[in-house]
Amino acid sequence: MSEILVVVDHADGAVRTTTAELLTCARRLGEPSAVFFGAAADLTPGQLAEYGARKAYVLEDAAYRDCLVAPKAEALAQLVADRRPAAVLIPSTPEGKEVAARLAIKTDSGLVTDASDVVRGDDGAVHTTQSVFGGAFTTTASITKGTPIVTLKPNSLTTEGADPAVPIEAETVRVAVSDTARAARIIRREPRGDIGRPDLADASIVVSGGRGTGGDFDAVEAFADCLGAAVGASRAAVDAGWYPHAFQVGQTGVTVSPQLYVASGISGAIQHIAGMRSSKIVVAVNKDAEAPIFGLADFGVIGDLRPVLVQATTEIDNRRA
Ligand code: FAD
């Protein structure tokens, strides 16, 4: 069966959900092999095997950690030349997309970024689905040049474990990283600080605030904390400087797919919906009964978000007490 390279998205070995999504996709195309940039000691083979990886290529050079993306692109190009995989799947993170673009140039291959699905077509080519213009249209493409490279948007599809999960074979791969690739080095990393909330992209509950908050996110944060949720924001709230861009949900922000999404003081612009439309249950709190978000919401509360969220928080806290 043809080999599919899957770049593992991880933080010090803790594999992110995106990797499970990529492996689920890769199994439709062929036999997935994970590409792990990091120390072999940090690799948790069981997590990769669970989603169908048959092999893990471990690339340990310090350049992958200490430099910008060039060493990773070089290493992947070398792996592509050596293993001749049928496709390469990469997470659609800012870094992943830059690595993918460089890899496409180096290998003279076709690339699709921000795909929401990947399948093998009847013609044998890799076919991708993308949501464009804020989710207003869905396009399909087939990659016919070189080794198809695809970046997959996080939270785009449901992960499926491999049955049975076969123990994984890890192989340390050494690639000569050029001096040019080592030239751009990372000199400092600023930790984001532990905000004590789940990661927005992976959270099972997200409470978001928009322009309707008027810049006061206290009620949104308190409600999120009582549910153990992540906090998100609309672009209007981010552009106003009320919340950091890292928490923006939407077309130009993070795509979320939680079990429960609470949109408070958010009108429901198409670009916002593009980042949360696959949420399982949507609750909207808005004082305008005509707000478009109510067209998508499963439950709606028409009213001022502050008293609504404060009352909901108090009610939940009281029931827990
Ligand atoms: P508004 O549209 O102004 O809505 C505010 C809502 O709050 C209104 O419905 C109002 O009735 C309600 N409200 C006001 N006061 C209260 C109150 N006290 N209680 C309850 N409700 C109240 N937007 C994103 O969010 N994410 C993106 O990634 C994104 N990308 C974009 C990319 C492009 C290329 C473009 C052109 C736009 C993008 N936008 C994005 C912007 C998007 O078009 C909207 O402008 C934005 O989503 C509006 O944010 P909002 O709903 O908070 O504000």
UniProtKB/TrEMBL annotation:
It holds the Pfam family ETF. It comes from the Bacteria. Residues 4-190 form the Electron transfer flavoprotein alpha/beta-subunit N-terminal domain. FAD binds at residues 211, 234-235, 248-252, 265-272, 286. Binds 1 FAD per dimer. Its cofactor is FAD. GO terms for biological process: fatty acid beta-oxidation using acyl-CoA dehydrogenase. GO terms for molecular function: electron transfer activity; flavin adenine dinucleotide binding. The keyword Ubl conjugation does not apply. InterPro entries: DHS-like_NAD/FAD-binding_dom (IPR029035), ETF_a/b_N (IPR014730), ETF_a/FixB (IPR001308), ETF_asu_C (IPR014731), ETF_asu_C_CS (IPR018206), Rossmann-like_a/b/a_fold (IPR014729). Keywords: Electron transport, FAD, Flavoprotein, Transport. PANTHER family: ELECTRON TRANSFER FLAVOPROTEIN ALPHA, ELECTRON TRANSFER FLAVOPROTEIN SUBUNIT ALPHA, MITOCHONDRIAL. Heterodimer of an alpha and a beta subunit. The electron transfer flavoprotein serves as a specific electron acceptor for other dehydrogenases. It transfers the electrons to the main respiratory chain via ETF-ubiquinone oxidoreductase (ETF dehydrogenase). Belongs to the ETF alpha-subunit/FixB family. This is Electron transfer flavoprotein subunit alpha.
